[in-house]
Every structure is written in C-alpha cells, then in structure tokens.
Write a structure and sequence with these properties.
- The complex is a heterodimer of chains A (158) and B (256).
- Chain A is α+β, with helices and mostly antiparallel strands and 158 residues long.
- Chain A has 2 domains: 63 residues, no CATH class; 87 residues, RNA polymerase II/Efflux pump adaptor protein, barrel-sandwich hybrid domain (OB fold (Dihydrolipoamide Acetyltransferase, E2P)).
- Chain A is built from 3 helices and 10 strands.
- The longest helix of chain A is centred in the N-terminal third of the chain and has 13 residues.
- The two termini of chain A are 38 Å apart.
- About 20% of the residues of chain A have low confidence.
- Chain B is of the alpha+beta class and 256 residues long.
- Chain B has 2 domains: 201 residues, BirA Bifunctional Protein, domain 2 (2-Layer Sandwich), CATH 3.30.930.10; 41 residues, SH3 type barrels, CATH 2.30.30.100.
- Chain B has 4 helices and 14 strands.
- In chain B, helix 2 crosses helix 3 and helix 2 packs across helix 4.
- In chain B, 50% of the residues are buried.
- The chains are: A alpha+beta (158), B alpha+beta (256).
- Strand 7 of chain A pairs parallel with strand 8 of chain B.
Chain lengths: 158, 256
Amino acid sequence: MLKLEELCQLIRVVAEYKVGSVEIEQEGVRIRIDGSPVAATPLLTGSLAPASLVSAPAPPPGQVLEGRSEATREADEGGLVFVTSPIVGTFYRAPNPEAAPFVEVGALVRKGQVLCIVEAMKLMNEIESDVAGTVVKVFPDNAQAVEFGQRLFAIRPA
Amino acid sequence: MRRLVELAPRANLVWLDAVDSTNDWADRIMAAALADDDPRLPPTVLVAAAQAAGHGRGSHWWASPAGGLYVTWLAWLPVEVLPGLPLAVSVACAEAVEALVPGLAVKLKWPNDLFVDGRKLGGMLCHVRGGGEQCWARVGVGINIAGTPALAPDDPARPISLAGCGWDGQLEPAIWALVSSFLGRIEAALAEPARTRERWQSRLLHQPGDTMRVRIDDAVVEGRFVGFSAEGHLLLEVEGRNQRVAAGEVLIRLES
C-alpha cells in the first residue's frame, strides 16, 4: 500500500512537473492522480485574491481570524499561556461525541497539537496549541457556547 | 491516459476506489504534509466511489453507497477567507448541481445542507487547522446522484437524489462535471464574500417569522426565526428573548 508521505510526494510531483496523470495499483488498491497545470500556483493569491479581498467588506468583529496564532494565544500570565477562541462558536473537547477528548488536564502537549474544536456554521476550527507544555486548566464545558477571545485552555510551557 | 476532466481544474484530483472516508484521508495527508519542512501542497481533491465510514456532523455518519459524490477538497487558504468558507462552499455546490441539471432549484437548509423539494440532496462539513496567515482547510461534500442511501422511511434526513429529480445521465461523468464545476466556482465565491453571502441567503429555506426548531447538542430549542447575524449565525426569538445560534441542526418537520 502506498504510504501517505509517498502520496504527498506524488501530488507535488504531478503538479510541479506537469506530468498529467498517474495511476498506481498496489495490493488491490487503485489510486489515480490527475495533475492540474496551474495547481502549483497557491490558491487565492496572485492577481485574484488581494484585489478582491481588499475591496470586500471587513469581516464582523467576532469573525476576524487575521493572525490566527495570535488570536488563539494571549500574553503570558503567571507563566501560563492561554489558548483563546478565534471565533464565536461551540466548544468541543473531542472530534465527535463518542470519541475521547483531545487532551485532559495534566496532559503534555506539543506545539501544533489539536486541543479542541470550536464549531460555527458547520465549520470545525481545530484549535492547536502554540506551545509545548502541560495542560493546566480547561475553561469551558464540552458543547458550551464560547465567545471570540474567550479562554479555552491554560498551558504551562515546558 | 485520458484526463479525468476536460477542463483544467485548479487542483490535483486523487481518485480512490473505496475508502473509509475521504475526509479521514485528507486529514492523514494534511498531517503528513504538516510534518514536512514545507507544509504546503497543491490544492487537492480526493474523490471516492464509495465510503465505508463517511462522516456527518457530530456523531452523525454519512451513508455513502456507490452512486453518490463523495469528495474532500483540501486547500491551503488565507485565514481571511475562512469565515466565509461554509457559505462559499454551499453556493459553489448548489450552482454546480444546477449547472448539471438545468431547471433544478437547489435550496439550502441552514447553514449549508443542499435541499430539493424539501428533501436532502447533499451536505458538507468543513474543517480548518493551522496558524499564521494561512490554514489548511478540508471540505467534505456528499451529494446523492444515482440513488439515495437506504434509510428508514421515517428518517428525518428524507434524502433525494438527482436521479429522483429526473436527471438520467451517467454517474462518472456527472461526478467529474460536479467536481470541475465546483473548482471553477469556489475561488471567486471565497474572494467575494459579500456577493456570496447574498447568493447564500437567497437560497435559504427559512423566512423571518417562521417557527424553527434547532437541535443544539442534546437539547431542542424552538423559537421564531428572526434573521441572520453578520456572520450568518441564526437569530431566534425564544420565549421573548433573542438567542444567537452559531452551531446546531435545524429540524425539518416531516410532512404528513
């Protein structure tokens, strides 16, 4: 079976070298990649995005996600780092109601690890930790409505 | 080798005969990419003929027999466009369906379920992850094309398929036409949030003054639908007080 890293590499190669299509069959599993001639261009950059985005109305205050990493992290307070909600939404501690929480109090987390989901409009924001450390406190209850900037987790940096 | 679509799409297309879930695959690919020195990947669409474990919202599953469209669009997006992502995706999908089946009127149940004649044609779920100026977004979309999943007669999902709407085309060309059409529309829909918001709102089933029941986690809230917030959240009047709903499931009454 093709490894995921190999699949990522194939996607990049198909795009960058414009090889058209690749079809691989291994152990009964068939994967076909059809490359795009423009796929190496980052989406929504270049001539389309900046002009359109600048002319668009500013997002409402509760929805401003600019500088997402800053929006999800407050300044240190007593050595703790607070992860805050980047949007108005509903806080979930687990990927679905039957699953175990992403993290528990006392857990060691690494930078980039997903701590929770904040949902709005069927958009699941997977909130990551900006620091490696220990989870000291989880502020909201599961399925609680949270506001923009509300504290979600306190983390003591390693 | 023939191309999967005639139009050059702004994404690589990865076809998988059968998977657990295209969203799970996208999640794994995203994790593998994030572990790289350069986490970016070209925009990529994963398409499956069938899914063994398709996801819906929360604990819901998405029945995914052969005969439907099951795709996940995986893209590295600027954070500014994320608030408009659920609206843009629903508008792009609705327009793609109407382009395939002329004369069909696709409506939306808040926030972005695809409905035709009061029945569910499809749905979508967006996930975003990452920090800084750009984020990973993975958008899963399911649309009933040739048939509907076998559900209980009283299942509130009340699915309908394009075939049930009178469409009589072939499945695989329809899948590629929908994917290609979606890719051709989504960037503009994201780049023009005000216009997209208007197009989204014009398709919604709900009218101010309607009585609305919404499942929020384990509870069901009933109120009078007032309108939408700037973000597109539901505004309800419940027992004389205004309530904003960012996440929940609008319950559609079964017709007798």
